[in-house]
Predict the structure.
Amino acid sequence: MIPEQIRNDFPIFKRQIHGKPLVYLDSAATTLHPTAVLDAEKKFYNECNANIHRGIHTMSEEATTLYESAREKVARFIGTPHVESIIFTRNTTESINLVAYSWARKMLKAGDEILLTAFEHHSNLVPWQLVASMTGATLKFIPLTTDGQLDMKAFEKLLAKRVKLVSLSAMSNVLGTITPVQEIVKKAHAIGAKVLIDGAQSIPHIPAKVTDLQCDFLAFSAHKMLGPTGVGILYGKPELLDAMDPFLGGGDMILEVTREASSWNELPWKFEAGTPNIAGVIGFGAAIDYLEAIGMGAIRDHEKMLTAYALDQLLKDPQLILYGPRDPEKRGGVISFNYGTIHPHDIGTLLDQEGIAIRAGHHCAQPLMKDYNISGTARVSFYIYNTKQDVDALIQALKKAATLFERV
């Protein structure tokens, strides 16, 4: 994989920020779009802009075929033979909320426990807080080791018959920590618990098949893997989805409606009420084609190389405080840090003046920030279009920021 050539597929790199070439280091928040994805959406609007499933005219049938073809691509990408187990939502957040509303509120009761990790994104915390308040279930948290990995001994102690659900990120959006998902799933299933994986940060970067993971639910988003915003994915084991009530009511999710009652459509449409983001889903299909042409193994290798290089360069500076593992094998391409006494927001602003886009703040992980006794961090994150030159630009900009603050 040659990122310099890949960058030519992304029109946005023609742009300059404050007169400087764009250095985009915020892919953990959202990724950029290759021409193939933009063209797929444009082609839909130009050639077959119609609603899906219900029309019998040519354009509706074409749109339906493209939409359902994207579902088949998603199923192939994550390795499930059950295409009907792929539910389209708006984002990872909605996918998790769907499980919280339709499965957890029905299945959990007072005294049951939901096991999370200490580094969860708010999207994999707040829905379970709501479930706990409605059902009487209790939240428990797997603590971290000093280098930001899950404390697996503590996890094993927390596992008990009262645990009915383990819900965790496969990769932390703050620390970059990659969790031992297969081990966790195996041990959780041994006590009868279900497992939901928040794959928002892992699925776009690390080869993964649900046949290997054996998770019960998997949630992720298109916009973090070159696709459009407004498209999320929930994978669920068909037998679990069959037993769940609909999350939303309306058109397309019904089989028959009377004024007194309704019956539900079959999977996956039972959970897809109303007109979906048709163009976005079709664009996501093109994004999957693009990623598969490169190969997820190649993407992971490239990010490991970049992460190792960035860590080596960053840690040469004694002013830099790193959060999370230092071993690139144990983390993804996400690096959170603080730099001297400079506030993360100031770092973000100063880097922006150099054309460098990063994220600064609590990253929707306020409890984790409190654990570290900080208000936030600066965060850089890599993807297929990043290069060592991007890292070099980051290092030079940080040195410039330090010089500026020394003068203040």
Notes: Residues 58-78 form the longest helix (21 residues).
